Amino acid sequence: MDKELKLILEELIKDFKNMKEVAAISFAGSSTSKRNDSLSDIDIDIFTYSDISVELREKIISKYAEYKEVGNDYWGQGDEFILKNKNIPIDIAYFGISWIEDIVNNILVNYNASVGYSTCFWYNIKNSDIIFDREGRFAKLKQISNCKYPVKLKKNIIEKNYPLLKNNISSYYNQISKAISRSDINSINHRLAGFMASYFDIIFAINEIPHPGEKRLINIIKNTCTKIPKNFEEDINNILKSAGNLDKELLVKLDSLIDNLDDII
């Protein structure tokens, strides 16, 4: 990070940390996990006691933005903008501090699994860099996140996600089979995305690695996991390439993916 950019970010962060609503601020995303590239933005997470109004967010961001989208709250509260004279995208996400504490407790204390992406928030907290922490609450979350992968959590993630691959009547596999018979390519795409989300969740759990999110998962698994299904990358590529063909051959390829996963569970 060049000196000028660092100074701009310091001013931006200062504006937010002076607000009474703000409990903590961190850098997150690919830059903190050393996986950023020329297409990556700068991710800033702001943890709050109460919501910051869109008007206040707009006032701060307007000082720094060449182009801005304030109130991009479609997947949670967030703002995105391009820094003036830098052409660097900034992505700010807002989370309630109590809410994120509950999320971490659900994962690392109660060992609750989700349908896909079970441990993404754990990964995010663990790999974030604290910029500001008013009461030390975020530092406590960081401390909790630096733990050994819980055996019970691993078990729960596999038990929740594996049946959805093929075992259950309502499994992704069976839904994809029906969609092929109906020539419903949109449904195939939808169910296949869910299938892959659960599949990757299982692989990260097997390897006892917190889930890093939705990007570059094949490369991350190849570089960080020791237990990888046979023909892992080849099977996934074949599945995705054949997904639009409305052909039962897709099911054969899904069977291969599941069979090879079985060998490492």
Order of helices and strands: HEEHEEEHHEHHHHHHH
Q: Stretches where pLDDT falls below 50 for ≥5 residues?
A: none
Q: What is the CA-based Rg, rounded? A: 21 Å
Tally of extended strands?
A: 6
What do we call the CATH homologous superfamily of the largest domain? Beta Polymerase, domain 2
Approximate helicity band: 40-55%
Shape: globular
Number of domains: 2
How large a portion of the residues is in β-strands, by DSSP E?
5-15%
Distance between the termini: 42 Å
Main sheet summary: 6 strands, mixed
Instruction: Look up the CATH topology of the largest domain.
Output: Beta Polymerase, domain 2
What does this protein structure show overall?
This protein is α+β, with helices and mostly antiparallel strands and 265 residues long. The chain has 2 domains: 3-145, Beta Polymerase, domain 2; 151-262. The chain has 11 helices and 6 strands. A 6-stranded mixed sheet has the order 3-4-5-2-1-6, with helices on both faces. The chain is globular, with a radius of gyration of 21 Å. The model has no long low-confidence stretch (mean pLDDT 94).
Outline the fold blueprint:
Elements lengths: L2 H15 L4 E7 L13 E7 L5 H9 L2 E6 L7 E6 L5 E8 H12 L11 H8 L1 E5 L3 H9 L5 H17 L4 H10 L3 H22 L10 H8 L7 H11 L6 H14 L3
Parallel strand pairs: 2-5
Antiparallel strand pairs: 1-2, 1-6, 3-4, 4-5
